[in-house]
Amino acid sequence: MTKPHRYLSGAVREPRMALRFALAILKADSQARHVIREEYVLKECKRYVARLFQRESRKSLDELWQCISDSGFHSSMRRALSSDEYACSGLQGRPIFGAELLYVACRVLRPRVVVETGVGPGVSTSYILKALDDNGFGLLHSIDMPTREHQLLQPTPEQRTSASSSCGHVPLNPRPSGWLVPESLRWRWKLYAGLSQEVLPEVLRECGELDIFLHDSEHTYENMLFEYRSAWPRLREGGVLVSHDIESNTAFADFAHEVLHEPIVMMGFGGFGAIFKRQPDSPHKLMASRGFLFEDRPPFVQPTSTA
Question: What is the total count of domains within the chain?
Fold first, then answer.
Protein backbone atom coordinates (compact mmCIF):
# COMPACT_ATOMS: atom_id res chain seq x y z
CA MET A 1 0.00 0.00 0.00
CA THR A 2 1.44 3.36 -1.00
CA LYS A 3 1.68 6.23 1.47
CA PRO A 4 -1.14 8.30 -0.16
CA HIS A 5 -3.45 5.27 -0.04
CA ARG A 6 -2.46 4.62 3.57
CA TYR A 7 -3.19 8.21 4.56
CA LEU A 8 -6.53 8.01 2.77
CA SER A 9 -7.49 4.75 4.48
CA GLY A 10 -6.51 6.27 7.83
CA ALA A 11 -8.69 9.31 7.15
CA VAL A 12 -11.62 7.03 6.24
CA ARG A 13 -11.22 5.09 9.50
CA GLU A 14 -10.83 8.22 11.62
CA PRO A 15 -12.54 11.14 9.77
CA ARG A 16 -12.80 13.42 12.84
CA MET A 17 -9.17 12.88 13.69
CA ALA A 18 -8.19 13.57 10.08
CA LEU A 19 -10.15 16.84 10.17
CA ARG A 20 -8.44 17.89 13.42
CA PHE A 21 -5.06 17.06 11.91
CA ALA A 22 -5.81 19.09 8.77
CA LEU A 23 -6.82 22.09 10.88
CA ALA A 24 -3.62 21.74 12.92
CA ILE A 25 -1.61 21.82 9.69
CA LEU A 26 -3.45 24.95 8.52
CA LYS A 27 -2.77 26.61 11.87
CA ALA A 28 0.87 25.47 11.82
CA ASP A 29 0.27 23.96 15.27
CA SER A 30 3.05 21.36 15.62
CA GLN A 31 2.06 20.45 19.18
CA ALA A 32 -1.51 19.64 18.13
CA ARG A 33 -0.21 17.56 15.21
CA HIS A 34 2.02 15.60 17.58
CA VAL A 35 -0.87 14.91 19.99
CA ILE A 36 -3.22 13.81 17.20
CA ARG A 37 -0.52 11.61 15.68
CA GLU A 38 -0.01 9.91 19.04
CA GLU A 39 -3.76 9.31 19.36
CA TYR A 40 -3.86 7.78 15.90
CA VAL A 41 -0.85 5.54 16.56
CA LEU A 42 -2.45 4.28 19.77
CA LYS A 43 -5.70 3.43 17.99
CA GLU A 44 -3.80 1.63 15.22
CA CYS A 45 -1.83 -0.31 17.81
CA LYS A 46 -5.05 -1.38 19.52
CA ARG A 47 -6.49 -2.58 16.23
CA TYR A 48 -3.29 -4.47 15.53
CA VAL A 49 -3.26 -6.19 18.94
CA ALA A 50 -6.88 -7.26 18.38
CA ARG A 51 -5.75 -8.90 15.13
CA LEU A 52 -2.75 -10.53 16.81
CA PHE A 53 -4.80 -12.05 19.62
CA GLN A 54 -8.16 -12.84 18.10
CA ARG A 55 -8.85 -15.51 20.72
CA GLU A 56 -8.57 -12.95 23.50
CA SER A 57 -11.71 -11.05 24.40
CA ARG A 58 -11.79 -7.37 23.57
CA LYS A 59 -12.55 -6.70 27.22
CA SER A 60 -9.40 -8.43 28.47
CA LEU A 61 -7.23 -6.61 25.90
CA ASP A 62 -8.81 -3.27 26.81
CA GLU A 63 -8.08 -3.97 30.47
CA LEU A 64 -4.39 -4.53 29.66
CA TRP A 65 -4.26 -1.31 27.64
CA GLN A 66 -5.89 0.52 30.55
CA CYS A 67 -3.49 -1.11 32.99
CA ILE A 68 -0.43 0.31 31.25
CA SER A 69 -1.99 3.64 30.19
CA ASP A 70 -3.06 4.49 33.76
CA SER A 71 0.14 3.27 35.41
CA GLY A 72 2.64 5.48 37.18
CA PHE A 73 5.30 3.72 35.10
CA HIS A 74 3.76 4.98 31.85
CA SER A 75 3.46 8.53 33.21
CA SER A 76 7.07 8.53 34.39
CA MET A 77 8.31 7.21 31.03
CA ARG A 78 6.44 9.94 29.17
CA ARG A 79 7.88 12.58 31.49
CA ALA A 80 11.36 11.17 31.05
CA LEU A 81 11.02 11.14 27.27
CA SER A 82 9.64 14.67 27.06
CA SER A 83 12.32 16.08 29.36
CA ASP A 84 15.31 14.11 28.07
CA GLU A 85 16.71 16.19 25.21
CA TYR A 86 18.93 13.37 23.99
CA ALA A 87 16.03 10.94 23.62
CA CYS A 88 13.93 13.68 22.02
CA SER A 89 16.62 14.42 19.44
CA GLY A 90 16.82 10.74 18.56
CA LEU A 91 13.05 10.52 18.04
CA GLN A 92 13.13 13.73 16.00
CA GLY A 93 9.72 14.79 17.22
CA ARG A 94 8.02 11.50 16.27
CA PRO A 95 5.64 9.68 18.63
CA ILE A 96 6.80 6.56 20.46
CA PHE A 97 5.75 3.66 18.26
CA GLY A 98 4.63 0.31 19.64
CA ALA A 99 5.80 0.54 23.26
CA GLU A 100 2.38 -0.07 24.83
CA LEU A 101 1.73 -2.66 22.11
CA LEU A 102 4.78 -4.64 23.25
CA TYR A 103 3.61 -4.42 26.85
CA VAL A 104 0.17 -5.84 26.02
CA ALA A 105 1.67 -8.55 23.79
CA CYS A 106 4.04 -9.67 26.55
CA ARG A 107 1.20 -9.74 29.08
CA VAL A 108 -0.90 -11.94 26.79
CA LEU A 109 1.92 -14.28 25.69
CA ARG A 110 3.54 -14.46 29.15
CA PRO A 111 7.04 -15.18 27.83
CA ARG A 112 9.87 -16.60 29.93
CA VAL A 113 12.65 -15.63 27.51
CA VAL A 114 12.64 -12.55 25.26
CA VAL A 115 15.52 -11.47 23.02
CA GLU A 116 15.66 -8.03 21.40
CA THR A 117 18.22 -6.37 19.16
CA GLY A 118 18.51 -2.59 19.34
CA VAL A 119 18.03 -0.72 22.60
CA GLY A 120 18.81 2.99 22.16
CA PRO A 121 17.29 4.93 25.08
CA GLY A 122 15.44 1.79 26.16
CA VAL A 123 11.78 2.63 25.52
CA SER A 124 10.70 -0.76 24.12
CA THR A 125 13.08 -2.42 26.57
CA SER A 126 11.38 -0.72 29.51
CA TYR A 127 7.86 -1.66 28.44
CA ILE A 128 8.86 -5.30 27.87
CA LEU A 129 10.51 -5.41 31.30
CA LYS A 130 7.46 -3.83 32.89
CA ALA A 131 5.25 -6.54 31.35
CA LEU A 132 7.58 -9.30 32.57
CA ASP A 133 7.57 -7.78 36.03
CA ASP A 134 3.76 -7.56 36.09
CA ASN A 135 3.61 -11.19 34.91
CA GLY A 136 5.87 -12.14 37.80
CA PHE A 137 8.46 -13.98 35.71
CA GLY A 138 10.61 -13.73 32.58
CA LEU A 139 13.99 -12.39 31.46
CA LEU A 140 14.95 -10.02 28.65
CA HIS A 141 18.23 -10.33 26.75
CA SER A 142 19.13 -7.24 24.68
CA ILE A 143 21.87 -6.51 22.17
CA ASP A 144 22.97 -2.99 21.30
CA MET A 145 25.97 -1.32 19.76
CA PRO A 146 28.08 0.35 22.46
CA THR A 147 28.63 3.33 20.16
CA ARG A 148 25.03 3.54 18.97
CA GLU A 149 24.31 6.56 21.19
CA HIS A 150 27.01 8.58 19.38
CA GLN A 151 25.08 8.33 16.11
CA LEU A 152 22.58 10.85 17.50
CA LEU A 153 25.37 13.38 17.80
CA GLN A 154 25.74 13.55 14.02
CA PRO A 155 22.22 14.23 12.66
CA THR A 156 21.51 15.47 9.18
CA PRO A 157 20.63 19.18 8.83
CA GLU A 158 16.95 18.24 8.49
CA GLN A 159 17.05 16.05 11.61
CA ARG A 160 18.89 18.75 13.54
CA THR A 161 16.21 21.30 12.61
CA SER A 162 13.40 18.92 13.59
CA ALA A 163 15.05 17.96 16.87
CA SER A 164 15.83 21.56 17.73
CA SER A 165 12.26 22.70 17.13
CA SER A 166 10.82 19.95 19.34
CA CYS A 167 13.48 19.86 22.08
CA GLY A 168 15.13 23.27 22.06
CA HIS A 169 18.53 22.05 20.88
CA VAL A 170 20.47 18.89 20.03
CA PRO A 171 22.33 17.76 23.18
CA LEU A 172 26.03 16.98 23.12
CA ASN A 173 26.35 14.51 26.00
CA PRO A 174 26.32 10.82 25.00
CA ARG A 175 24.22 8.28 26.89
CA PRO A 176 24.71 4.55 27.48
CA SER A 177 22.33 2.03 25.92
CA GLY A 178 19.07 1.84 27.83
CA TRP A 179 19.62 4.91 29.96
CA LEU A 180 15.85 5.34 30.42
CA VAL A 181 15.28 1.82 31.79
CA PRO A 182 14.08 2.14 35.42
CA GLU A 183 16.51 0.76 37.99
CA SER A 184 13.76 -1.33 39.59
CA LEU A 185 13.35 -3.39 36.39
CA ARG A 186 17.00 -3.97 35.51
CA TRP A 187 17.36 -7.21 37.48
CA ARG A 188 15.30 -8.94 34.76
CA TRP A 189 17.55 -7.57 32.02
CA LYS A 190 20.86 -8.66 30.53
CA LEU A 191 22.53 -6.28 28.04
CA TYR A 192 25.12 -7.42 25.51
CA ALA A 193 27.28 -4.88 23.66
CA GLY A 194 28.24 -5.44 20.03
CA LEU A 195 27.01 -6.01 16.50
CA SER A 196 24.12 -8.45 16.36
CA GLN A 197 25.85 -10.43 13.61
CA GLU A 198 28.71 -11.04 16.02
CA VAL A 199 26.84 -11.34 19.33
CA LEU A 200 23.39 -12.76 18.49
CA PRO A 201 24.43 -16.39 17.78
CA GLU A 202 26.09 -16.72 21.19
CA VAL A 203 23.17 -15.02 22.97
CA LEU A 204 20.72 -17.41 21.31
CA ARG A 205 22.81 -20.41 22.37
CA GLU A 206 22.88 -19.10 25.91
CA CYS A 207 19.12 -18.49 26.02
CA GLY A 208 18.05 -21.82 24.56
CA GLU A 209 14.37 -21.75 23.57
CA LEU A 210 12.80 -18.32 22.97
CA ASP A 211 9.23 -17.14 23.42
CA ILE A 212 9.63 -13.76 21.67
CA PHE A 213 12.29 -12.29 19.38
CA LEU A 214 12.21 -8.57 18.59
CA HIS A 215 14.27 -6.93 15.85
CA ASP A 216 14.88 -3.21 16.21
CA SER A 217 18.57 -2.81 15.37
CA GLU A 218 20.18 -1.94 12.04
CA HIS A 219 17.43 -1.99 9.42
CA THR A 220 19.43 -3.18 6.42
CA TYR A 221 18.17 -6.07 4.32
CA GLU A 222 21.18 -8.23 5.16
CA ASN A 223 21.08 -7.63 8.90
CA MET A 224 17.32 -8.06 9.23
CA LEU A 225 17.35 -11.33 7.30
CA PHE A 226 20.33 -12.55 9.31
CA GLU A 227 18.55 -11.88 12.60
CA TYR A 228 15.28 -13.48 11.48
CA ARG A 229 17.06 -16.60 10.25
CA SER A 230 19.18 -16.84 13.39
CA ALA A 231 16.29 -16.49 15.84
CA TRP A 232 13.65 -18.54 14.04
CA PRO A 233 15.06 -22.04 14.85
CA ARG A 234 15.28 -21.03 18.52
CA LEU A 235 11.64 -19.92 18.76
CA ARG A 236 9.34 -22.38 20.45
CA GLU A 237 6.19 -23.57 18.73
CA GLY A 238 3.70 -20.77 19.31
CA GLY A 239 6.46 -18.23 19.85
CA VAL A 240 6.51 -15.01 17.87
CA LEU A 241 9.09 -13.13 15.81
CA VAL A 242 8.43 -9.39 15.93
CA SER A 243 10.05 -6.67 13.84
CA HIS A 244 10.06 -2.90 13.75
CA ASP A 245 10.62 -0.97 10.50
CA ILE A 246 9.50 -3.66 8.10
CA GLU A 247 8.94 -0.96 5.48
CA SER A 248 12.70 -0.33 5.30
CA ASN A 249 13.12 -3.12 2.71
CA THR A 250 11.64 -6.49 1.74
CA ALA A 251 13.56 -8.60 4.29
CA PHE A 252 10.52 -9.27 6.49
CA ALA A 253 8.31 -10.18 3.56
CA ASP A 254 10.99 -12.39 2.03
CA PHE A 255 11.58 -14.20 5.30
CA ALA A 256 7.87 -14.85 5.89
CA HIS A 257 7.71 -16.26 2.38
CA GLU A 258 10.82 -18.34 3.00
CA VAL A 259 9.42 -20.03 6.12
CA LEU A 260 5.89 -20.30 4.66
CA HIS A 261 4.23 -18.33 7.45
CA GLU A 262 1.73 -15.53 6.87
CA PRO A 263 2.69 -12.41 8.83
CA ILE A 264 0.42 -9.98 10.61
CA VAL A 265 1.49 -6.47 9.70
CA MET A 266 0.72 -2.88 10.60
CA MET A 267 2.00 -0.28 8.19
CA GLY A 268 2.92 3.31 8.85
CA PHE A 269 5.68 4.87 11.00
CA GLY A 270 8.14 2.37 9.52
CA GLY A 271 5.89 -0.65 9.81
CA PHE A 272 5.52 -3.36 12.45
CA GLY A 273 5.19 -7.08 11.80
CA ALA A 274 4.77 -10.35 13.68
CA ILE A 275 5.04 -14.00 12.65
CA PHE A 276 3.74 -16.69 14.99
CA LYS A 277 5.66 -19.95 14.67
CA ARG A 278 3.41 -22.90 13.86
CA GLN A 279 2.89 -25.40 11.06
CA PRO A 280 3.86 -23.71 7.76
CA ASP A 281 1.18 -22.44 5.41
CA SER A 282 1.03 -23.63 1.84
CA PRO A 283 2.72 -21.42 -0.78
CA HIS A 284 -0.66 -21.07 -2.50
CA LYS A 285 -2.22 -19.63 0.65
CA LEU A 286 0.62 -17.18 1.02
CA MET A 287 0.43 -16.04 -2.58
CA ALA A 288 -3.30 -15.53 -2.16
CA SER A 289 -2.78 -13.25 0.81
CA ARG A 290 -4.39 -9.86 0.30
CA GLY A 291 -1.67 -8.07 2.26
CA PHE A 292 0.78 -5.98 0.23
CA LEU A 293 3.63 -8.16 1.45
CA PHE A 294 2.74 -10.98 -0.93
CA GLU A 295 1.10 -9.25 -3.83
CA ASP A 296 2.81 -10.35 -7.06
CA ARG A 297 5.74 -11.72 -5.05
CA PRO A 298 7.71 -14.46 -6.89
CA PRO A 299 8.88 -17.62 -5.13
CA PHE A 300 11.61 -16.85 -2.61
CA VAL A 301 15.10 -16.70 -4.03
CA GLN A 302 17.99 -16.40 -1.59
CA PRO A 303 20.08 -13.30 -2.37
CA THR A 304 23.49 -14.13 -3.76
CA SER A 305 26.38 -12.97 -1.60
CA THR A 306 28.86 -10.54 -3.04
CA ALA A 307 32.55 -10.48 -2.27
Answer: 1
